[in-house]
Amino acid sequence: MAEAAEDRDWQRLDTWLWSARFMKARSDCARLIAEGSVRINRQPTDKPHARLRPGDVLTLPLRGEVRVVRVLFLATRRGPAPEARLLYEELPG
After folding, report:
1. Alpha carbon distance 29, 35 (integer Å)
2. 29 CB-side CA count, 13 A
3. Rounded distance, CA 88 to CA 46, Å?
4. Short-list 11, 63, 57, 9, CA closest to 32
5. Taking a C-beta distance cutoff of 8 angstroms, is the pair 70, 52 a contact?
6. Is the pTM of this model over 0.85?
7. CATH class of the structural domain 9-91
8. What is the pLDDT of residues 20-79, one digit of tens each?
9. Where are the strands (E) in the chain, listed by range?
């Protein structure tokens, strides 16, 4: 079972955005990415399954503003908001 190894050093972009509580539904995260609105390390991506690693910088439009965040940790679950906030740090836009 290739997918059973949860100790990998990356996570799907849509799953991480959902776990970090940027949007309410994972499908909304996938749709935002598929539109080409999200950048990983300044590179546009339209792949919800793009590999995200700690240290990557995301640029994404949310609620009328552009947010830039650095990924600090991969998510193990979608926890409460205070826990989700520990997964990233905000960077100046």
Report:
1. 10
2. 18
3. 21
4. 63
5. no
6. yes
7. alpha beta
8. 999 999 999 999 999 999 999 999 999 999 999 999 999 999 989 999 999 999 999 999
9. 11-12, 38-40, 43-45, 51-52, 57-62, 65-71, 88-91
